[in-house]
Amino acid sequence: MNITNQTIDGGKAFDWGNISADYAKFRDIYPQEFYNKITRQNLCINGQSVLDLGTGTGVLPRNMYRYGANWIGTDISEQQIKQAKLLSDGMDIQYYVQSAENADFPDNTFDVITACQCFWYFSHEQLLPSFLRILKPGGCILLLYMAWLPFEDKIADASERLVLKYNPKWSGANETTRPISIPKCYFPHFELTFHEEYPLSVPFTPESWHGRMKACRGIGASLAPHEIAAWEQEHTKLLSEIAPAAFTVAHYGALAILKKK
What are phi and psi of 202, to 5 degrees? Predict the structure, then answer.
């Protein structure tokens, strides 16, 4: 499903379904510390009911399933949900093709609502009443993010420059460590009780880093097949020149917790 947002990539349409297979293979990369940060806040653990909005291929529910929460994941992309179900085989996780704004669940259903790598895609004024309705009293919204740091990592910088060559209006470039931005409409109803931004070092090979870059919004989700093929050829050559057989890429992780008043 094509998504167009004038504040993202200059309004260029993108569709995560176009890259679901690569997303499933190459974007399950959060280090254990990323998940430890969540459980240290006593969130997404045993006995809690959790809704993961924009779940994609179910990375968050699948990796946190062992902590005992009851998970539901929703995503607007049918292809992403298909991959999530395949990868969650044997796990009692429910998945639905559904936009965040159309989350249709009974009142007071969830202890926690999570949004990982997707919060800025939502129509917040439309979504807010649903959050207030389906969250239990005192429930939390947990926002999560991880991004590479091009100003601190030469490989990330070179790969990012190549994405911009093929997609100049891609707005995912030039990340620096910063708190997750939260629209003002939340604060009359939620309290920001915690936020943290922290460094991460994520391991890659040339193949897995190439796959990670291809599965970003600026390439696989938005370019035409012939453009993707040209980028792949050039990026493979670039990595053969600058990347060793194994390396790490500097990232930062961020989380923010909004508690329902």
Answer: -110, 125
Query: Taking all residues of the chain, what is their mean pLDDT, rounded to a whole number?
Result: 96
**Integer Cα distance of 69 and 144 in angstroms:** 17
Query: Is the distance from CB of 158 to CB of 137 less than 8 angstroms?
Result: no
From 8, 21, 12, select the one nearest 215 (Cα to Cα): 21
Q: How far apart are CA 38 and CA 255, in angstroms?
A: 8
Task: Please give the pLDDT value at position 228.
Answer: 98
HSE value, Cβ hemisphere, 13 Å, CA-based, for 158 = 15
Instruction: Report whether 242 contacts 154 (CB < 8 A).
Output: yes
Dist. CA 174–CA 130, nearest whole Å? 33
Residue 27's closest CA among 87, 77, 113? 87
State residue 135 phi and psi, 5-degree precision. Answer: -80, 140
Helix (H, G, I), strand (E, B) or coil at 165: helix
In 10 A of CB 199, how many CB atoms? 12
DSSP letter at 174 equals: S
φ/ψ (deg, to 5) at 93: -120, 130
Provide the residue type at 73 as one letter: G
Q: Residue 1: what pLDDT?
A: 64
pLDDT in tens, 226-258: 999 999 999 999 999 999 999 999 999 999 999
Q: Which amino acid is at 148?
A: W
